[in-house]
Amino acid sequence: MKLPISLYVLTTSLLLVAVVIMVGIEVPFKWIFITTIFGQALLVYMVYRVLKDEYATTKTFDNFYEDYPIERK
């Protein structure tokens, strides 16, 4: 079963936010260090998965932004 890319992004973001919270509540250094190392490894894996994802689109730079259409003259 292939997990969606957004799950990796969410998990990595939450883990690294958890490190910041752990520092704020003064968790022992050992746990902060382990969580940081795991978070960095997860970050590298997330970047790899995002770059290797087989995502295709029909949009081009001529489409500009969908939420701000530009009128052609």
From TrEMBL:
Keywords, alphabetical: Membrane, Transmembrane, Transmembrane helix
Protein name: Uncharacterized protein
Organism the protein comes from: Neptunitalea lumnitzerae
Highest rank taxon of the organism: Bacteria
Keyword Membrane recorded: yes
Stretches that traverse the bilayer: 7-25, 31-51
